[in-house]
Amino acid sequence: MIRWLKNKKSGTKNEPDSANTGAASQEEAPASHPPAFARTDVSSDPEAYSAATAEPKPSAVDFSRPLLTVTGVERSFSVGGQPLHVLKGINMELYPTQLVMLKGRSGSGKTTLLNLIGGLDQPNRGEIRFKEHSFHRSGDDERTYIRRKEIGFIFQSFALMPLLSAWENVELSLRMAGIPRSEWKSRVTHCLELVGLAKRMHHRPFELSGGEQQRVAIAKAIAHRPSLLLADEPTAELDSQMGAQVMAVFRDIIRTERMTICMTTHDPTIMEVADRVFEMVDGKFINN
Ligand SMILES: Nc1ncnc2c1ncn2[C@@H]1O[C@H](COP(=O)(O)OP(=O)(O)OP(=O)(O)O)[C@@H](O)[C@H]1O
């Protein structure tokens, strides 16, 4: 179960919104091929993560061998017939059980990098190695297969099926990941308990707060036991209390499920929760 954070102002309940409607169309695509992360703005609240940052950092990161290595990665897009150089030589490593944050101004390239790390896109130059796989060389089918087995995605807008309960949403991800039916019940229960939703399992998204919806999305993303969890501004739609709860859940997931988490954020106040922060400015890391 998550460790609930103290000293928070209370949150507001989110009403169902277009995010869920959008999620339905995302779900219609195969689970193995999630949509690329959308680019968004976020409001931040300096109080939001004060207690989260007060949480003790749990187990030490396993530095024996990187889970993912990014070397000299460049990514350009053609905009109006002109090349737009978005990533200009990125080097980074993610280690098992590490919580890594990518911070930087809007448009600096964080989401573009997250899409590459998740195998949703490929670099124009450089290498991305995930375990024994080479994302920069592999074709769509191979990357889809690796994503299905090894990577979980969390979106700012929760990406839940609006007509399914929390339980059914998590179960759906196991079904789409090809996990044997005999494992569904115990795994769904475990994941929803892990994110603190044991008592909300049969609620549908519109019956849950924004923070609870995001925790269902987290349960859904980790259900198939990925080794890497990628989250694009997972707290951006949440108030301070809910955002802090999400960060506490992330810490518990790392500790108990032994996953690596890489997330983007605009919020400088949560940086102390991270094991490592990469700051991106104009397509490069400035503190690497
Ligand atoms: N597919 C694409 N085609 C053209 N331009 C793109 C594409 N993807 C990203 N860009 C551009 O790359 C730049 C970086 O975008 P990106 O979304 O990676 O930034 P970001 O740091 O994640 O921003 P935000 O914090 O607002 O989400 C932007 O100028 C964006 O318009």
Automatic annotation (TrEMBL):
<dbReference type="InterPro" id="IPR003593">
    <property type="entry name" value="AAA+_ATPase"/>
</dbReference>
<keyword id="KW-0067">ATP-binding</keyword>
<keyword id="KW-0813">Transport</keyword>
<feature type="region of interest" description="Disordered">
    <location>
        <begin position="1"/>
        <end position="57"/>
    </location>
</feature>
<dbReference type="InterPro" id="IPR017911">
    <property type="entry name" value="MacB-like_ATP-bd"/>
</dbReference>
<feature type="domain" description="ABC transporter">
    <location>
        <begin position="68"/>
        <end position="286"/>
    </location>
</feature>
<dbReference type="InterPro" id="IPR017871">
    <property type="entry name" value="ABC_transporter-like_CS"/>
</dbReference>
<dbReference type="InterPro" id="IPR015854">
    <property type="entry name" value="ABC_transpr_LolD-like"/>
</dbReference>
<dbReference type="InterPro" id="IPR027417">
    <property type="entry name" value="P-loop_NTPase"/>
</dbReference>
<protein>
    <submittedName>
        <fullName>ABC transporter ATP-binding protein</fullName>
    </submittedName>
</protein>
<keyword id="KW-0547">Nucleotide-binding</keyword>
<dbReference type="Pfam" id="PF00005">
    <property type="entry name" value="ABC_tran"/>
</dbReference>
<feature type="compositionally biased region" description="Basic residues">
    <location>
        <begin position="1"/>
        <end position="11"/>
    </location>
</feature>
<dbReference type="GO" id="GO:0005524">
    <property type="term" value="F:ATP binding"/>
</dbReference>
<dbReference type="InterPro" id="IPR003439">
    <property type="entry name" value="ABC_transporter-like_ATP-bd"/>
</dbReference>
